[in-house]
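Subject line: Sequence and fold of a protein, written as structure tokens
Enclosed: The protein record, placed directly beneath this head.
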Amino acid sequence: MDLNSIVKITRKILRALDTSYKNKLYHGSLTEDNIFVDENYNVKIYDYGITQANKGINIRKDNSIGFLSPHQININYTDKESDFFTLGVILFDSIFKKMPFGIGKNEKDMLKLIDRGIDWNTVAINNENIALVNIVKKLIRRTEKYNSVEEVLIDLSKFMYVKADIEENSINIIEEDTEKKQHNKPNSKFLQKALLLILTLIILVTVITQF
């Protein structure tokens, strides 16, 4: 999935989460499996209220432990911060096609992996995705985090603006390079005329020398 699509989907997920937050409802069990996206990028999020219905205990099934925040694993506490953490994990997986911390065999193992952190030297960060990676970092780190959905949406908008600017500059560079090549390309009509003139002079000189 390209970065533009990832950002479009993320923005819609955030708006859906924001609506639930206004009703004081946190998801708590967000994973890639309960986010449905159709061909028009319409997003539906399922399994709302499962954590709440389960008396705040987060469901541990399949590989879902890899999407839980530290305080969900430790004390089964779900809030906006835990949803943001999970969104950061999902974003990382969407960009780099792997889980940021891996998946622990159990809760204790998972916490160790999270404490160890992400080895950013093992992922392909470049000028195109670095702004989005910084958003991921802010979603999953323990300090200086996002406080609201609006803050995340603003940074995503900035990312799209910067990305569009980079793409525009790339197009301009290509166009300039093409113009230079065309400018430096020899004029074929001029060469034809020059060759014709030279041939004419050679013929004239040959004729004159014969007399």
In short: The chain has one domain: 3-169. The mean pLDDT is 82. The first helix runs from residue 3 to 22.
